[in-house]
Each structure stands twice: as C-alpha cells, then as structure tokens.
Design brief:
single chain, 131 residues, mainly beta, 1 helix, 50% strand, globular
C-alpha cells in the first residue's frame, strides 16, 4: 500500500510564506513518474497547482501561482515540496499531493494538469491565508 502524507499547512498572513511537504511511502514509490500538487477551495473544483517529473526535474505551474510557488523533489527521500511565497487570500484551500505511477508518455498541459491522470493521493493539508 502506497501512502502520501502532506505536512506544512497552516494559517499565514497575506504576503507570507509556507512550505508544504509530501512524503511517499510504500513499495511502489520508485515507480512514480511525476508528483504534483492540487488544491481545492470550499465550493470549488479541485485545481492543478504544480507538477514535477521525477526523471529530470521538469516542472510546470498553473498561471495563478507562477513566479510565487516552487515545486521541488528529493528522489532519495521520496518527498516533494511546494514552497509558497507571496501568499494571497485566494490561495486558501486544502492542498493535496498526487502521484502518477509511470511516466506521462506525452507531456502535455491537458494531461499533466488533469487530476484523473494521477493514481495516488494524500489526505490534504489546509492552507489559510488571511488578508
């Protein structure tokens, strides 16, 4: 059984920073091709935030977080991070870590941002940004 466990959420003032971590455990973690962060605000659909490809570190970000958030990974620790700077109240949401077993054969925006293309999910961590 593979588990993804997020940590690092909390309450922060607008303009502040948080760093989320997602630790993967289980016998199939070495087969993960990509790991990503999604978020879901109350009353809204789950939306893509950022993704990192395990093999070469290639990343992609949602326009709403580009320049403010940075995704990174430590393959040895099976951990992915999301450094969030210049946080805004609109960033308030539950943040979920997701992992895809195997590689995206074709790395396209539509594929890497679609939550249905990820196999394993964490329980989520709450991020609240006050104004």
């Amino acid at each position: 059984q593979v588990q993804l466990r997020e940590s690092g959420g909390g309450l922060v003032q607008g303009g502040g920073s948080l760093r989320l971590s997602c630790a993967a455990s289980g016998r199939t973690t070495s087969t993960y091709g990509s790991m990503a962060w999604f978020r879901q605000a109350p009353g809204k659909e789950r939306e893509f935030v950022a993704v990192i490809r395990r093999s070469d570190g290639r990343t992609y970000y949602a326009d709403s977080v580009k320049g403010r958030f940075t995704i990174s990974g430590d393959n040895a620790k099976n951990t992915v991070y999301l450094q969030m700077n210049s946080l805004e109240p609109e960033d308030t949401a539950v943040y979920y870590c997701a992992a895809r077993r195997g590689a995206f054969i074709i790395w396209t925006i539509s594929r890497i941002t679609n939550p249905s293309n990820y196999d394993d999910w964490g329980q989520g961590t709450q991020v609240t940004v006050s104004s």
